[in-house]
Amino acid sequence: MLTPPIGVLGGTFDPIHIGHLRPAIEARDALGLAEVRLLPNHIPPHRANPLCSSEQRLAMVRLAAADNPGFVVDERELRRDTPSWTIDTLVELRSELPDTPLCFLMGMDSLLGLPGWHRWQKLLDYAHLVVSCRPGWQPDYSVQVAELLARHQTRDIQDLHRQRHGHVWLCDNLPVELSATRLRALLAAGQDPKYLLPNPVADYIRRHGLYRSSATQ
């Protein structure tokens, strides 16, 4: 007997903002996820090292999770000294939760770049992929991604509940045009980040003077 699926959302979270949280909230509600696990990276494999320390980013993620019912923080990637490969995290979670479907939450930009991920062909052996899409946008899929969708895409939400892994679900979301890079530039310029990230996170950033000078570097 399978338990309800959970969502898994990894990221640098430098800082965590509505562009991370709003699609996760919509996926939680649309798919009936039991929880959403937020996993801050220690060593991000696909981008430069974060500006804020692991401790600061973890503190902000904890504040964001406390502000959203059903969101929890998973610190496992911060405890590693190796790059935060998604496949390693999913293998661990599958071992710990053998009867729980796992839904790895990602954006369309990540899906388009999936062939560059470490052991990306194995991801669906451990989880479903739930992809946040901009309504009406027609992405230019590579041959590899197009083949992945042809084999694994489902339009039946119950497939994500009936099976532990193996499906791709494209989830239409309200568009949120915000990146952490743009947000850091806004903070560095001293502009008000209200409505762009949770109030407790904004308060933490102000209190600790984060992103003031080197935010756009």
From TrEMBL:
Organism name: Aeromonas caviae (Aeromonas punctata)
Phylogenetic placement of the source organism: Bacteria, Pseudomonadati, Pseudomonadota, Gammaproteobacteria, Aeromonadales
Catalytic function, reaction form: nicotinate beta-D-ribonucleotide + ATP + H(+) = deamido-NAD(+) + diphosphate
Pfam families listed in its UniProt record: CTP_transf_like (PF01467)
PANTHER family for this protein: NICOTINATE-NUCLEOTIDE ADENYLYLTRANSFERASE-RELATED (PTHR39321), PHOSPHOPANTETHEINE ADENYLYLTRANSFERASE (PTHR39321:SF3)
Family the entry assigns: Belongs to the NadD family.
GO molecular function: nicotinate-nucleotide adenylyltransferase activity
Domain of life of the native organism: Bacteria
Name of this chain's protein: Probable nicotinate-nucleotide adenylyltransferase
